[in-house]
Design goal:
Helix content is 43%, strand content 15%. The protein has a 3-stranded antiparallel beta sheet with strand order 1-3-2. It is globular.
């Protein structure tokens, strides 16, 4: 889903290509795409330019892409306000 890059400067986060492109266009100060990530469904988020709320939103989108329908349903039932 995500990890701290070995450089310690950014977090590659797994997203669909569509979401990746949307966030690259809408938040160029937060996201970038190194050449070696271009063919993969990841966007890279600089660690020095994010706020916790926004990071939680991006990670939730990533999780939803990877989680099973059953896991998503269970999460939504346990957290109805989210």
């Amino acid at each position: 889903m995500c990890r701290l890059h070995e450089s310690g400067r950014f977090i590659p986060i797994r997203l669909t290509f569509g979401l990746r492109d949307r966030y690259l266009d809408s938040h160029p100060e937060l996201f970038h795409l190194p050449e070696h990530f271009r063919n993969y469904p990841y966007v890279c988020m600089w660690i020095h330019h994010y706020d916790t709320t926004f990071l939680k939103k991006i990670l939730a989108l990533s999780w939803r892409e990877l989680a099973s329908k059953k896991a998503i349903r269970a999460y939504e039932e346990a957290n109805p306000k989210l």
